[in-house]
Structure formats: C-alpha cells, structure tokens
C-alpha cells in the first residue's frame, strides 16, 4: 500500500492546558529534525494531531524514525482519497484485504470534520462495512476489540483511511522539560537513566569523567558512542569530558581508604554542579539505583549529595538490575555498555568501601585536599564535543573493514 | 569439471579467500587484547557480526560464532538440555535429522533424557499434528531441520511455528545448514524460533567456521568453558579470518538471492524431468514445492549408488551418494529408510546438490552423460 501521510497522535501533552502550544511547537520541531534527511516531506503540527505528508517518501523509513521521537502516543499511516464514495470503497476494500487473516474481526470508525459531506458517520460506517463484508469473505464485524479497526476521516481536503495504529515512544517532547546535565559513566545504568531523562522532555548535556592513563582511550570512545546512540532521541547531545586523574591521585594520597570512594563522588558531584551552573542547567541526572553498590546506599547518597543544593534526579532509583538491563537492551545500549574497558569508577575503588559513610567524616576528609584548586584545574581542562546520531567513535576502521567484508 | 556436490561442501569463493588472507596478515591481534591490535581485531569481529545480523534480520547479540554445523547442533541441543534440565527431560526431533542432531540426541538418551523421533511421510516431512501430539509437560526442546541434506525436503516450518507458538517455553532449534541462501529465510527466521545453526563451508566460506542465531533472552549452557569469549557462551580465541570471510561469503550469497534460487530450481527440474523418463529411475525429491531448489535425489534400480558416483566421476562430473557423512560407511540413507523406501532401492540412491554458480549447460551435459551411463548399466542387469 502506498501511503500518502502519517497521522501522529499526541501523548500526554493533550492534557496539559496552557503549555499545550509550546509542546506542540516543540514536537513539530523535533519531528522535523528527525525527518530532516527526507526530501519533500511536509510536517504540520496542528492542535489535535500532527500530520506528516509523505509526498512519495518511504513510509517504513519515516515511521522507523518517528518511533524514536518522544511525545508521540501513536501514529497511523494513511491513504488519502478523493471525496468520492466509490474511490473510498475501493481503497477501504484494498486496505482490509491486505491486512486480512482468516477469522479476523473488524469495525469501521468514521470521523467527519466536513459536515457538508454527503454521508454522515453512521451512513459511512454502514456503506463501507457492507461493501467490505461483500468483498472480503471470512471477515466478521465486532464492535469491541476488533482485530482491525479501519479509521476513516472525512476532512476538508479529502478522506483519509488508515488501518494500522503503531505505538509511539510516549513521554514528552525533548526540550519541553528544560535542561539538565547527566553523569554518564559508560556502564549499563547511566545510558538508561539518560533515556528516561530525555523521555520526560529534558534536554541533557553529558558529563563524563576520564582519567588517563588509568582509563583507556577506548573507555572514552565508548562513552561517546553511547552518547551517539542516545542522540537519536534528541537530535544531538553535547559531551563534556572532565579530566579526573589528578583529583583521584590526590584523594588516594590524602584520604583514608574507607572514604576514597565517598570523597571521589563528592568531587564528581561538585564538578558536575559547577558545570550545570555554567551552562544554565537546572538539575543533575544520574544512573543511581538504591542499594545497588556501596555508593548507592541512602547514607552514601546523603554524604555525597551534601555538596550541592541542585536537584539530583535518579530515574532508576527503585529499579532492579534485571529491569534496567531489559531497558538497556531495548534502547540498544546494552551491548556497548558491557564492553570491558576500565572506566573511572572501577579504578581507585578500595577493596572495602564504607557502605554507611558518616556525613561528618566525609566533610572532614574532603578537607584534607585543596578542593577549590583541584576543581579549577579540572574545569579549565574540560573538552566539549557535539555528538550527532550515528557518529562513530569506537571503530575508526569501519570503512576499511567494510571493504573486506 | 561439473561439481554437483555442494551439499557436501562448496568451493571457497576467491573474494572470500582474499578476505581470509588479508585479515590473517593485517588483523592478527587477539580481539580480547587491550592494546590497539586487539582493539582493531575486536572491531572487525563485531563489524562482521553486525553484518551477519543485518543480513539475517537479527540483533547483534543474537549472533554467536561456532566452528560449524556440527558444533552448532550439538550446542543448541546439549546446551538446552543442560540449561533446562530442571524443567523436564523430554526432547523431540525428527527421524531424518543430520547425524550431528541425531547422535547428540542419542548421547543425551544415555544420560537419562527421553527422545521422541517424529516420523515422516513419503516426501520426508513431519506433520505438525504429530508434533503437537508428541509434546508433553516435560518437553524442553524441539529440533527440526529446515532442509533435509539427503533429499532436500523442506520441513513444514510455518505449521511447526504455529504449534510452537502455543508452547512458548519450549526451545525450538532449526538446523538450517542446508537452508541458507535458498529462498527460505522467511520460514527459517520466523517469529518463534529460538536457535538456528549454520555452517560456513556450505556457502563458500572456509571450513571450521559457522554461526548460531540465539533469540535474545533464551538461555543456553556453554559447551566450551574457558576465557569467556562470545558473551561468555562459547570460549576460545575467535577465528577472526574465517569469521570475516564468512561474513563476506554470506553477503555474496544473499545478493540477488531470488534470481539465484530460480536458476537452481530450473537446473534441478531440467535434470529431474530428464531422468524420470527412464523406467528404472525412482525420484525421491519430486517436482513439488515442498522440496528445496538445489537438491535432487534419485535411484537407478539395480545399480549401487557408489557405482553411479564413480561412473559420473569418469566423466569429470561430481555427485554423491545420499550424504557425504555416510557415503564411506556403506550404510543406506537414514532419510530414505525413514521414508520407508525399500533397502534395495535405497542403496541405489544418489544426490545432486547445486550452488548458485551451476549452469543450465552443465545440466544438459549431465543429462547426456546420464543417457550413456544408463544404457551401460542396463546391459549389466
């Protein structure tokens, strides 16, 4: 079936009274960005629906991209027909035939915007229903939960027929939730947390700590590659790498072993908060899940969180590891996350970190190092990379290998 | 030379050998090494995996490399038996499987597992109803081949899939060694199958390499314990030159697959319709859509299969008795036996198996030689 347009239904944003306009505008922009590589497409974001007029573009490829855009509840590829009852009948029969499987049930659902049209919704349901029953043997009508619901919309500019409703990504359009920074390590959790942040409409900048030579170039490349995957949901993400080796070395030298991890985390959070402020971000996201590791007990969180009053948002807080892995697999980050490169969290980890650090002692031991001086040095050394969807960081030889394969 | 024994093995394609040589020379690092030689090798390994995943419509993590078809079959079967032992001990397969499946089942029988062999009809195919009737609460695995290696029967995979959908917890393995590149991808990679095994040398890749599709989330116990390669499921330093070569061979194989399949089918039918005219000839892989496009099995009554093979060899035409594995053991075909073909005629069976490079001219030459040999054989009996 050659489709003429994709009709997109909005998610939660339909319910948000006064912000609705902004949401629709943002979603329109995001959809345009996601579909920018298709020529001749038209995207119209209206108050109740968004319409993508294909003008000949490949509908499967377009729908694939739409699946990654947050703020879309679902969408239906539809065929535009002239307001001629015979033409409508013909297309309706063809669509049902294409989807038909033995024993299938169906119903017709007509909506009429053009009140001048010769038939009302009741008559349309009746006419099309009986025509389809005559032409597709083995099909039966069922009003509740049919296998196939043929939607017919009589609009001013034509009649639109659609049979399929495809689930969208849900959530809110990226950009409507303000801006935050994300602490991205390269493990399994932080990319999943990034996904949830983006899904709630928050635009994120990635903050990644790297400590050469304790961590490898590959670990950095892996974090960037993960960012490139996540950038598919937002069009592009700024990646901020923060040099952390000197701070780690100093902490290792000055701070008692039980508090190495807590003090390192405090410094990471201080740096992240400073970066967030510089970039006018309003919050910090991370991939912490309560009780998962030593730094993620309630006491640890209290001892670390102490360094900033900026909201710290933890989308994975109450999720089990197995649930997190499932999401990671679905969003295609799991395979990357499990690549075995040392990252900054696995080095300088004491054999027995305090799972219940005291706030007092954390403050005291942090005082053994020159926090301001070290922070200034680190912030002076940051590098920012703009990462686009599909960018390649891990496999620099991709083209050479493609020749071989 | 006319090579009509492609189900035994295929000739490695020159481009594939070239990739093998280049990878051996240039990317010899161990993919597990941390330095750049290792990293490059690792990237090539994963890019090869991605290419294969894309070609068969799977996810990256669903493709696992093995040493070939025999290992893949052993792994899918024994790995399931070990992983799912606590849920039951009943395994189901068919009477016409390759020895790699059959003998794995027999080994497990020795270990206390119960095995049901599904019977086949006159075309060597099982019935989905028989499968449904054989399933018990203790069933943990169903293993069915895609294309029979001896006569080319395609098992009713769509119907089997329909039965298996009602039993989502039972593992389903398809041995697709003879089924790749033969226009059967939709049947093999259906929405229900859990494990599919392949062998590289059956599609112009080198020996000693193969791959397994494993549906995401399905559990299997490793047979090879060691350094944790292949996502901890199949240890052993990866055979990177062969893996890259196989990825290339698969790309070449599947390029313009439909046209290649049509050509093989036409050649098969040209020979089939020629030899079937002779009174002493029995055709086992008939002109029916349930047979694969590339395999033709027939017998000349009164002449031993080996004699036919050697007679053609004198004319530089290479065919085989029913399968390369059994052809040196003087046993008649197990598939024909399962089809209740008389032993006398089964020992006279030979197999022609085509690849995408065979031509209609070769079929004509074969038919010519066949006429000559048939007359010669007729004098003997």
TrEMBL record, chain A:
Residues bound to ATP: 183-184, 208-209, 265, 287, 296
Molecular function, one GO term: tRNA-uracil-4 sulfurtransferase activity
Reactions that this protein is recorded to catalyse: [ThiI sulfur-carrier protein]-S-sulfanyl-L-cysteine + a uridine in tRNA + 2 reduced [2Fe-2S]-[ferredoxin] + ATP + H(+) = [ThiI sulfur-carrier protein]-L-cysteine + a 4-thiouridine in tRNA + 2 oxidized [2Fe-2S]-[ferredoxin] + AMP + diphosphate; [ThiS sulfur-carrier protein]-C-terminal Gly-Gly-AMP + S-sulfanyl-L-cysteinyl-[cysteine desulfurase] + AH2 = [ThiS sulfur-carrier protein]-C-terminal-Gly-aminoethanethioate + L-cysteinyl-[cysteine desulfurase] + A + AMP + 2 H(+)
TM regions (residue ranges): none
Subcellular location: Cytoplasm
CDD domains (UniProt xref): PPase_ThiI, THUMP_ThiI
Keyword ATP-binding on entry: yes
Entry keywords, A to Z: ATP-binding, Cytoplasm, Nucleotide-binding, RNA-binding, Thiamine biosynthesis, Transferase, tRNA-binding
Pfam families to which the protein is assigned, alphabetical: ThiI (PF02568), ThiI_fer (PF22025), THUMP (PF02926)
Domain (THUMP): residue spans on this chain: 60-165
Recorded metabolic or biological pathway in which this protein acts: Cofactor biosynthesis; thiamine diphosphate biosynthesis
Chief place of localization: cytoplasm
Superkingdom as given in the UniProt entry: Bacteria
Enzyme Commission number, as recorded: 2.8.1.4
Function comment: Catalyzes the ATP-dependent transfer of a sulfur to tRNA to produce 4-thiouridine in position 8 of tRNAs, which functions as a near-UV photosensor. Also catalyzes the transfer of sulfur to the sulfur carrier protein ThiS, forming ThiS-thiocarboxylate. This is a step in the synthesis of thiazole, in the thiamine biosynthesis pathway. The sulfur is donated as persulfide by IscS.
Family membership noted in the UniProt record: Belongs to the ThiI family.
The protein's name: Probable tRNA sulfurtransferase
Gene (UniProt): thiI
TrEMBL record, chain B:
One Pfam family cited in the UniProt record for this chain: Aminotran_5
Cofactor needs: pyridoxal 5'-phosphate
Positions of the Aminotransferase class V domain: 2-366
Coiled coil regions, renumbered to chain: none
Cross-referenced Gene3D superfamilies: 1.10.260.50, Aspartate Aminotransferase, domain 1, Type I PLP-dependent aspartate aminotransferase-like (Major domain)
Keyword Mitochondrion among record annotations: no
Keyword terms of this UniProt record: Iron, Iron-sulfur, Metal-binding, Pyridoxal phosphate
Database matches in InterPro entries: Aminotrans_V_dom (IPR000192), Aminotrans_V_PyrdxlP_BS (IPR020578), Cysteine_dSase (IPR016454), PyrdxlP-dep_Trfase (IPR015424), PyrdxlP-dep_Trfase_major (IPR015421), PyrdxlP-dep_Trfase_small (IPR015422)
Family indicated by similarity: Belongs to the class-V pyridoxal-phosphate-dependent aminotransferase family. NifS/IscS subfamily.
PANTHER family per UniProt: CYSTEINE DESULFURASE ISCS 2-RELATED (PTHR11601:SF50), CYSTEINE DESULFURYLASE FAMILY MEMBER (PTHR11601)
Protein known as: Cysteine desulfurase family protein
């Amino acid at each position: 079936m050659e489709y003429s347009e994709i009709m997109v239904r909005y998610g939660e944003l339909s319910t948000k009274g006064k912000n609705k306009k902004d949401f629709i505008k943002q979603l329109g922009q995001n959809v345009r960005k996601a579909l920018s590589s298709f020529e001749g497409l038209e995207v119209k974001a209206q108050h109740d629906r968004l319409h993508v007029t294909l003008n000949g573009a490949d509908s499967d490829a377009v729908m694939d991209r739409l699946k990654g855009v947050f703020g879309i509840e679902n969408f239906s590829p539809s065929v535009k027909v002239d307001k001629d009852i015979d033409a409508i009948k013909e297309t309706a029969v063809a669509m049902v035939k294409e989807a038909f499987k033995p024993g299938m049930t169906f119903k017709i659902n007509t909506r009429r915007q053009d009140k001048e049209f010769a038939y009302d919704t009741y008559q349309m349901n009746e006419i099309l229903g009986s025509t389809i029953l005559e032409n597709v043997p083995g099909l039966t009508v069922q009003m509740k939960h049919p296998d196939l619901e043929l939607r017919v919309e009589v609009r001013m500019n034509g009649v639109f027929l659609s049979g399929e409703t495809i689930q969208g990504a849900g959530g809110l359009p990226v950009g409507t939730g303000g801006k935050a920074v994300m602490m991205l390590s390269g493990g399994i959790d932080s990319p999943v947390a990034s996904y949830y942040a983006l899904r709630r409409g928050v635009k994120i900048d990635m903050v990644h700590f790297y400590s050469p030579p304790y961590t490898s170039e590959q670990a950095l490349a892996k974090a960037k590659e993960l960012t490139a995957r996540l950038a598919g949901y937002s069009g592009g993400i700024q990646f901020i790498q923060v040099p952390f080796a000197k701070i780690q070395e100093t902490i290792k030298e000055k701070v008692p072993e039980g508090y190495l991890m807590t003090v390192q985390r405090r410094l990471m959070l201080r740096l992240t908060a400073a970066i967030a402020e510089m970039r006018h971000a309003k919050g910090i996201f991370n991939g912490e899940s309560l009780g998962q590791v030593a730094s993620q007990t309630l006491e640890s969180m209290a001892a670390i969180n102490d360094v900033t009053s900026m909201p710290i948002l933890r989308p994975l807080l109450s999720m089990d590891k197995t649930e997190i892995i499932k999401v990671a697999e679905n969003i295609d980050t799991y395979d990357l996350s499990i690549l075995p490169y040392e990252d900054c969290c696995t080095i300088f980890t004491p054999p027995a970190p305090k799972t219940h650090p005291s706030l007092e002692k954390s403050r005291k031991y942090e005082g053994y190092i020159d926090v301001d001086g070290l922070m200034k040095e680190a912030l002076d050394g940051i590098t920012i990379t703009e990462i686009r969807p599909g960018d390649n960081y891990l496999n620099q030889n991709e083209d050479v290998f493609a020749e071989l394969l | 030379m006319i090579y009509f024994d492609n189900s035994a093995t295929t000739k490695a394609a020159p481009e594939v050998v070239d990739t093998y040589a280049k990878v051996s020379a240039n990317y010899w690092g161990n993919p597990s090494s941390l330095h750049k030689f290792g990293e490059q090798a690792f990237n090539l390994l994963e890019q090869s995996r991605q290419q294969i995943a894309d070609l068969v419509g799977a996810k990256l993590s669903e493709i696992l490399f093995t040493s070939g078809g025999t290992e893949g079959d052993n792994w899918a079967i024994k790995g399931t038996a070990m992983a799912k032992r606590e849920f039951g001990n009943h395994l189901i397969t068919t009477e016409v499987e390759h020895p790699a499946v059959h003998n794995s089942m027999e080994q497990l029988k020795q270990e206390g597992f119960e095995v049901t062999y599904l019977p086949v009809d006159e075309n060597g195919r099982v019935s989905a109803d028989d499968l449904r009737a054989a399933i018990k609460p203790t069933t943990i695995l169903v293993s069915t081949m895609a294309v029979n290696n001896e006569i080319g029967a395609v098992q009713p995979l769509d119907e089997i899939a329909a039965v298996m959908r009602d039993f989502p917890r039972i593992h389903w393995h398809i041995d697709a060694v003879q089924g790749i590149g033969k226009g059967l991808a939709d049947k093999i990679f259906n929405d229900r199958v859990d494990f599919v095994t392949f062998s590289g040398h059956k599609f112009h890749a080198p020996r000693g390499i193969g791959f397994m599709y494993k549906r995401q989330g399905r559990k299997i116990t490793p047979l090879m314990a060691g350094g944790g390669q292949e996502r901890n499921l199949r240890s052993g330093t990866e055979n990177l030159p062969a893996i890259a070569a196989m990825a290339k061979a698969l790309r070449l194989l599947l390029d313009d697959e439909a046209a290649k399949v049509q050509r093989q089918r036409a050649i098969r039918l040209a020979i089939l319709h020629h030899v079937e005219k002779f009174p002493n000839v029995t055709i086992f892989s008939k002109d029916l859509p349930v047979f694969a496009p590339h395999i033709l099995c027939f017998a000349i009554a009164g002449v031993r299969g080996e004699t036919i093979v050697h007679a053609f060899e004198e004319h530089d035409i290479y065919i085989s008795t029913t399968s390369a594995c059994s052809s040196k053991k003087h046993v008649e075909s197990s598939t024909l036996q399962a089809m209740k073909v008389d032993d006398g005629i089964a020992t006279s069976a030979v197999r022609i198996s085509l690849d995408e490079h065979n031509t209609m001219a070769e079929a004509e030459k074969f038919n010519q030689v066949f006429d000559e040999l048939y007359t010669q054989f007729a004098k003997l009996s």
